[in-house]
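Thread: adenosine-5'-triphosphate complex, take 2
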Amino acid sequence: MSEMPGDNTRLLAGSREGRDAGPRGAAGLAESPASPARERTTEGALEATARERATEGTPEATARERTAEGAPEVTVLERASGRGPEVTVLERAGGGGPGTTAAQGQAIVTRGLTKRFRGGQVAVDGLDLAVPRGSVFGFLGPNGSGKTTTIRMLLGLVTPTEGTWEMLGRPMPGAIPAVLPRVGALVEGPAFYPYLSGEANLRRYDAADPAADPRTASRRIGLALERVGLTAAARKRYRAYSLGMRQRLAIAAALLGPRELLVLDEPTNGLDPQGTREVRALVKEIAADGTTVFVSSHLLAEVEQMCTHVGVMRTGRLVAQGPIDEFRRLSAGETVMIRVETPDTAVAAAVLTGLGLAGVRTGDGETVAELGALAPETVTAELVTAGVAVRGLAVQRPSLEDVFVRLTGEGFDVDG
Ligand SMILES: Nc1ncnc2c1ncn2[C@@H]1O[C@H](COP(=O)(O)OP(=O)(O)OP(=O)(O)O)[C@@H](O)[C@H]1O
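Output below.
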């Protein structure tokens, strides 16, 4: 999505006025604006802040969960309100104590990054992002939640209204000339010529980069094609490429040169299932080579498959962030339910209550309870012994999506 011409937002630090500057025309940012207050936990732990987004005056409940022995602690402060809590689960930026700047362990750090478009639309609101080096960071959020705008700010294509950011340990946008050559990006797909081969297209692309040495172009292009698995199809015309091959060529264009960070905006959007699989596999391969990958998506399933870390956006705000394993651990700690399908709902309820299960309730042809530590086979045996006609029995374990919905109040597309 491109910025409106004449956007005259300005940097808080006042280093630039008026129009956005291109990547090479950017001036330095000064001090970071104050970040929102945030509950601190111990070194390496997750941090959490909760903000009320429901009605005033509701009682505040505090829940502290220790997920596992020695595991990072997640503090969830929530208001007992009708809607889900708004929780920011933030991993502390790379081991830095108070007073340290963005740690070298982070590929991207933002503080209070905000974009307000002309007309007042706040596309990104006070973003505090921490993307560890070596991670595959899934930037997850529904359409319109501010992912593209964030990526464009990170790359210096759109000027933030407020906030600061660092990439590869350097303050931006001042360090853009030094940093961007080490960053590959795919924001809007590059336009390729249909009648030229993949290789010839990359050659044109490479030639347009003033920083690229023409004497080493062939080597760069060969390596990029090899990296995305298109060496054999290098001389085929672009129009004969499948959707997946086309997207892999676009990623090759972002990989012309050694990159420490690859930024991909919805790289599987519009692809067929085969193309989607190819791109996901490629992302994993690139990450396995040591490149940090920051990839946006509106599909939770995709982020789950590809990513080691996740940041969740909703209406311009980052509502949860951390290693995907931590979210998995949270989901493992959630209540497992048992659902018994039976015409004998009252007897079944009595059996489950007798077994000490909590939250027993009956519905139309079913009895439901929290399974707790009991084995489902124990429950089944007791039901049968009591003469309950069991037509079906299901154990419902919460999914990662359940955790995200609880944390963010937001559902995600789960197809693909
Ligand atoms: N140039 C612009 N001028 C005004 N509003 C804009 C501009 N670009 C984006 N927006 C608005 O900012 C919000 C966030 O858009 P953005 O494209 O960043 O979201 P997204 O999460 O990437 O969604 P999508 O995947 O649909 O692009 C949207 O409401 C969008 O309409």
